[in-house]
Amino acid sequence: MSNNCQMIRFLSDCSILFYRMLPRNKKNREYDLELSQETIDLKNEIDVKVSGTDNRNIFDDGRSQKLTPEEINDLRSDSSRASDIVETLITNSKTFHNKTGFSQEKYLRKKEKKYFEYIQILRPNLRMITEILYKLDPSKIQGIRMDTLSQIITLSNINSEGNHILYDSGSNGLLAAALLSAIGEQSTGKLIHMHPGNMSQKLALMGMNFSIEQLDRCVSVNVYSALRQFYQGCDTNSNDVLNKESIEGHNLKRKALENLNGHKNKVTKIEDDTDVKSNKSNVSDNDNEEYEPKKPKWHFLNITASKLLSEKADSLVIACKEDPQNIFNELSSFVKPGRPFVVYYNVAEPLQNLYMTLKSKGNVAALKLTCNWMRNYQILPERTHPEVTMDNGGGFLLSGYIFK
């Protein structure tokens, strides 16, 4: 098992397990796991007796550590215990003993996360999946933070009953996982997960380890195909494509048999046209017997989504990379009167245009355009966010209620 000596979370049962990492190959940082009943706190192993009174004379100029980065890497490969590594770093530090007791504990906690010998086995939850995906690459989930995700669930009033529509064009399945988690298990709720591509993104959805029963209540369909199924009753191009594939497959089999029996590879144009016409007639006659194709899964998903859309939805959530105005105008007609909607975008300008358009129409109520970075609750006045090291890209939310 390769590891970067940080805390790693794995999928497991509800019980919390601790494993100690035993070095197998120090150069490649490969470890074996050994079940441990308890973990050893780094603070208890390293006895710090001297501490300073304040930190006013300590400057972080990068020269307080005597060891070079190469020497620290050699130390990590030679030592098997985290306490030995941290104790050596403390010994070669010029400012550690001048820090206050609180600063020393903070330093030890930071080094403990970096050189920890244990991993903790936890069952993944929505907060964990969101934090991992956001730390890896925020752009792949459209910059949706955990606080933004919680606001989307709250404003859309997701519950365990009714139907809910989600249009998602690039959050790696994070919004689908959040809404399906809010609907819960063994409920009657349905989630219509619409996406613009051929296949939906399900990274976060699969990472949540939902049961099969819960996953079946998430109907993932292409938005264009589902709307065509709803308005026209069938996929107009599906029969032509399937018949074309069956005819081409029959022609390929015929040519392969001719080559195998030693017949001529080249035939005249008249003979070829005659064979094609006869093959087409044979295919049309025996279509129900030999060449009846099996319908793909998306065909049945479109039918299911069409039935759910005809029953109207209880909420609408949109998180897109394109202009949300046309998407909202199309999907809002499938929402029951008096039901909420939420539109997420990582910049404010498209939502401002949608806000002015909806204000002029008058078919929505309680319109509100908010930014999680500057919100009027949970935060003191004239403040931004309780986390000090948080970035300022949390996106914008346009919420309201639809009235016909």
From TrEMBL:
<dbReference type="Pfam" id="PF04189">
    <property type="entry name" value="Gcd10p"/>
</dbReference>
<dbReference type="GO" id="GO:0030488">
    <property type="term" value="P:tRNA methylation"/>
</dbReference>
<dbReference type="InterPro" id="IPR029063">
    <property type="entry name" value="SAM-dependent_MTases_sf"/>
</dbReference>
<feature type="region of interest" description="Disordered">
    <location>
        <begin position="263"/>
        <end position="291"/>
    </location>
</feature>
<comment type="similarity">
    <text>Belongs to the TRM6/GCD10 family.</text>
</comment>
<keyword id="KW-0539">Nucleus</keyword>
<dbReference type="InterPro" id="IPR017423">
    <property type="entry name" value="TRM6"/>
</dbReference>
<keyword id="KW-0819">tRNA processing</keyword>
<dbReference type="GO" id="GO:0031515">
    <property type="term" value="C:tRNA (m1A) methyltransferase complex"/>
</dbReference>
<feature type="compositionally biased region" description="Basic and acidic residues">
    <location>
        <begin position="268"/>
        <end position="278"/>
    </location>
</feature>
<dbReference type="GO" id="GO:0005634">
    <property type="term" value="C:nucleus"/>
</dbReference>
<protein>
    <recommendedName>
        <fullName>tRNA (adenine(58)-N(1))-methyltransferase non-catalytic subunit TRM6</fullName>
    </recommendedName>
</protein>
